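Quick one, tokens below. Sequence please?
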């Protein structure tokens, strides 16, 4: 049991050390990245919505005849 606690403690020390070495993005970079993601999601959702509406109308047209 004592070995397990030492392993966990060593792991957490190494995680802390590695997190200090991480280069975190600036606020400006984070906001820019977020905006890019939101715009792409909006474009993809719009495209899929238009395709869905078109296919729904096409299926209704085919089934109504």
């Amino acid at each position: 049991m004592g070995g397990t606690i030492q392993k966990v403690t060593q792991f957490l020390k190494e995680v802390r050390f590695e997190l200090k070495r991480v280069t975190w993005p600036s606020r400006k970079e984070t906001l820019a990245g977020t905006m890019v993601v939101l715009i792409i999601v909006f474009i993809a959702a719009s495209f899929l919505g238009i395709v869905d509406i078109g296919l729904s109308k096409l299926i209704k047209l085919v089934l109504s005849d």
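Residues 27-64 form the longest helix (38 residues). Residues 25-65 form one domain.
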